[in-house]
Design brief:
alpha/beta, globular, 4-stranded parallel beta sheet, about 50% helix, disordered N terminus, about 160 residues
Amino acid sequence: MRDQKHRSPLGSGNAAERFAIAGMALGEARQKNRELHWPIIIEGKRDRTALQALHFAGPIEVLNRGWGLDRFITYLYEQYGTRGTDGGPSMCLLMDWDRTGGRLQKTLTQRLESLDVKVCHELRNQLLKALKPETRVVESLKSLAVDLLPFVEQEDPAQNVG
């Protein structure tokens, strides 16, 4: 059944329900990212491309930019502070939901929280639960964008794409 791979993942099981959950989480994050300039911290350039395919327009910070971890954490602290403008987390950590991403998420969280920086894991946790059968990496959101965007737009319809 090779042609099954090329079909929309929404055609089987509870995928529509899971994509709705993922889309809601992405829509909430996209709105905060755009309106509150709430940064999304990701691993690499392809992850940025995936978020842009979902029309994220606010700050997206890439971990793998040739800097050491200390320099990157110092940059985040100086750029975004310890609390968001709404009093909540000052940034969203969105590492892949594979083993390496989990280690990075844990390390960054520990290091940032030691500086009293409040971080959000909600988006990653929602995507991990909802999209694990389809993907374990942020960059794959680009290939799922066609199926995810209607759900994202329901949550964040104010987005102007242009």
